[in-house]
């Protein structure tokens, strides 16, 4: 019996490693608390492996990326993304923005990376390939691309630096801000990718295959790279959706009541009040996440309930946050005339990857004058 | 190998001398970008002219190959030039990283040295853009790297430049006087621009007990990065009796402020008002790399307890105060914290 032409190939070591990573990532993201931040670390390892696999694929671009106007479209889009990154304001910390938003910054950087991969595929990564792997024609072509790209780099980088540093005080403020934010990303992008952009721009359409002749089909490694790429981009998007859709998970505990005795302001009459320790943790999102913690003591004496510590307005801030922005919507810590104490903190949590995916989170503690807990996370 | 009998005796046209020129240019660029010395005291232009001279010598030694048009080159020269641009991308990336390391390490070292000598940190608090030293170093790298690559790698003598390139190389020396004229015009004529406080910086600390304080940080930029920046950084406190400066022992605390620490003699003036350059620093945000700056700061409290803090500075691009410009910035705060005047 002859061998089947489409016999299944064996599973490579890279695929096994990727599989283990994905399982580990899913497990850690399913766990509450800080364990899910380890999932993000695993994600970065996954991204690094993806980069190596994608870089290792050298094949003819397909019929789409072989067309000059498509490649030029990718280049123009890349330029627009770079301008978008430069225009994104630097996040500034304030009391109402304890974890300041990054706007569209993260999303733009991810889109830029995707475009870089497309561009690399369209130019077969000739611009940065080792000398041993390019032929004489490719060597001459990429040298010419670098020669054209260099003056463009000088004008773009040098011109931007010089004009913005010389022109007005506002342009200098922008320069200061962008050099500590998106400016470096764009500089590195231009430094490493501009020659490939020029190459994609100047190269003519690929010669159409003769009738009956087809382009080389993408190999297993090529298909594997595409799958990895899709998964790499899908994970942060999926985690952003989780942030918006999955309800926060809460763990709480509070100690038994304890009696505290203090003296009055006149110093001759003992004041007896009862206090209780409150501990709660509200986790919003998985992987792309933040948490709000209550670690407080509240007291009451039959006339009024008060905060001892941990339930004041300075305590309106999130804990560890990963790839989110948090804005405070409301923060109150008051005792009503009937003696009921209320701590209310409301915040808007947005994904840094897709900023319009957000969730409003409320953390409330309400205790009446007799120590009855009316509301607790 | 191509030879050039006319230029055989020219000292910079051996492979070794070309490499020495490259090394000298790199060292000069690194020195310019470093924070040692913290100020060039108005002599920045000399450093810029020296580096520009090295650049011109490099261009001369490579026959201006990096800047030559394709039509004036043969196939070999064109291939050499194009390859230099490709290698130049790598050199540029490496150069920027190295410059960043030099800048960061020397800034931290300079800060440590200054803190040890009680003169405070060197980091400014103004949004004054990037300094002229760093800007020129970056522009220098951007413009000269392909020429450096050619000078470093080319072992053979380069071909005799054609007439058009030879004329261009003679004219390029005009860059030096042009730079001087541009600089004088920029420092003397260009409008003064404001430099606000960097929003990433947090305000300074507090004052004596029972007082409220606020900090004023502002600057004026003369001639952009290749001129001078004059800054004012002062922490003003008030207690209902007097408004006064804290953080600078040169400005004594009034009796009403010292009284907040207890009976007379319970604390020394030095302990009550230690130097805090983050709060008040006369000249702390001043940049005098490319023009000399003479700056004085005075603080006076009038009979009504109102503080008058005045910074006067003279910016001189040339010796003997030729083309000098004077700037005055004042902060006036009443004993109740009302700000009458601020820059």
Structural notes for this entry:
- The complex is a heterodimer of chains A (377) and B (343).
- With 377 residues, chain A is an alpha+beta fold.
- Chain A has helices at residues 13-30, 35-55, 68-87, 105-122, 136-166, 169-179, 183-202, 220-245; strands at residues 249-254, 258-263, 270-284, 289-300, 305-309, 321-322, 324-335, 341-351, 358-367, 373-375.
- In chain A, a hairpin with a 4-residue loop joins strand 3 and strand 4.
- In chain A, helix 5 (136-166) crosses helix 6.
- With 343 residues, chain B is an alpha+beta fold.
- Chain B has helices spanning 15-33, 44-61, 75-116, 132-153, 163-171, 175-189, 255-259, 269-272; strands at 193-195, 212-222, 228-238, 243-246, 292-301, 307-316, 325-333, 339-341.
- Chain B has a four-stranded antiparallel sheet. A four-stranded antiparallel sheet of chain B has the order 5-6-7-8, with no helix packed on it.
- Chain B is elongated.
